[in-house]
Design a protein that fits this description.
It is a single chain. This protein has 343 residues and is an alpha/beta fold. The protein has nine helices and nine strands. The chain has one domain (17-53, 92-340): TIM Barrel.
């Protein structure tokens, strides 16, 4: 392993899981600590396929139709009148995905001679699943069902894998909320949102490993929000670290510096709040700065600005998965991150 590692958010444009993992291992293998299965096929668009599957759910009915062409054209549901939505009735499919693809990962890891490489499992946050499924009002009314389902799947995966995976909690809604809050209420909002994220880990088995993926959305490679500076993500990341439960490892926090098509800013003032970031020494900071819209020299400049403020080396990543990219674009991004490793 090199001192600076590369982190992949999840999705890779490839025909199947084995092709995705082989592609990544060929290009980035020595620089990876963990490896996702590529989230190929219908999973390339994060939770879209899960929400579409709810058309057949007996307790849900369509509230608004949507073709997913933009954030204002998404499919949403409501709970049917006289029905109760329970966590036991929700299946997000994560357990089946792990059961199918973990053996492929184990075989490839053996071929590579990397027994230290860990299998990464993306888990959307419960609030995120609830909000994108039911909209804001329905999300807070029925969040408990999504919490129960999410925790159940984490525990089932831990059981079938003997706790030998790393769960990536994917929570764009929380950071988007932070960007939209007035500055005076942001600290309180960060504490509230962080408790919800940490609760998922707290209800997982002892020894479970986690990473937290903060994001601004990437539907059709468009962000749902933008930051004027990094203060919202610093407040949220600090709050998560402060309330993280004992006995569960917080391996990393990923923070985005890009927003969809918008590359990371070159202005140093954008990054100054990072000087107040307070993560445990055992928790890696993964900088989501890799972006096709900047030259290598510009990317090196951004990396320098980030590390100047946080006072330590950071790992490298894009702001989100490569699932919305073409294979050529994904390879170019992987080549770009390789070029940054020696910085």
């Amino acid at each position: 392993m090199t001192e600076r590692s590369v982190h992949l958010m999840g999705s890779i444009p490839a025909a199947n899981a084995e092709a995705a993992m082989r592609e990544v291992l060929t290009r980035l293998g020595p620089h990876l600590r963990c490896l996702p299965d590529g989230e190929t096929g219908e999973r390339r668009n994060w939770i879209m396929h899960i929400i579409e599957s709810f058309r057949a759910h007996p307790d849900l009915q369509v509230r608004t139709e949507g073709d997913w062409s933009g954030y204002d054209r998404v499919l949403t549901f409501r709970v049917r009148k006289g029905h109760t939505l329970r966590g036991e009735s929700l299946d997000f499919g994560h357990v089946v995905n792990v059961e199918e693809n973990l053996p492929i990962f184990q075989r490839l890891r053996h071929e590579l001679g990397r027994p230290d490489l860990i299998f990464q499992v993306g888990i959307p946050g419960d609030l995120d699943m609830a909000l994108f499924t039911l909209g804001p009002l329905g999300a807070f009314r029925h969040r408990r069902a999504f919490t129960e389902a999410t925790v159940r799947e984490i525990n089932e995966i831990s059981s079938v894998t003997a706790n030998q995976v790393l769960f990536q909690l994917e929570v764009p809604v929380e950071l988007i909320f932070m960007t939209r809050m007035p500055a005076p209420v942001r600290p309180a909002m960060a504490a509230f949102l962080a408790r919800g994220i940490a609760r998922l880990a707290d209800q997982s088995p002892d020894g479970a490993r986690f990473g937290v993926h903060l994001c601004l959305g990437d539907l059709n490679h468009k962000a749902m929000a933008r930051m004027r500076n990094t203060r919202p993500l610093v407040l949220l990341a600090n709050a998560v670290a402060k309330c993280w439960p004992a006995g569960r490892s917080l391996d990393y926090v990923h923070v985005p510096f890009t927003a969809g098509e918008q590359p990371p800013p070159l202005d140093p003032t954008f990054y100054r709040p990072l000087g107040k970031l307070r993560l445990p020494g055992t928790t890696r900071l993964v900088a989501g700065l890799v972006h096709e819209g900047q030259s290598i020299d510009e990317q090196r400049h951004v990396l320098g600005l980030v590390e100047e403020q946080v006072g330590r080396r950071v790992d490298l990543a894009a702001a989100c998965g490569f699932g919305r990219c073409t294979p050529e674009q994904a390879r170019a991004a992987m080549d770009q991150v390789t070029a940054l490793l020696g910085t």
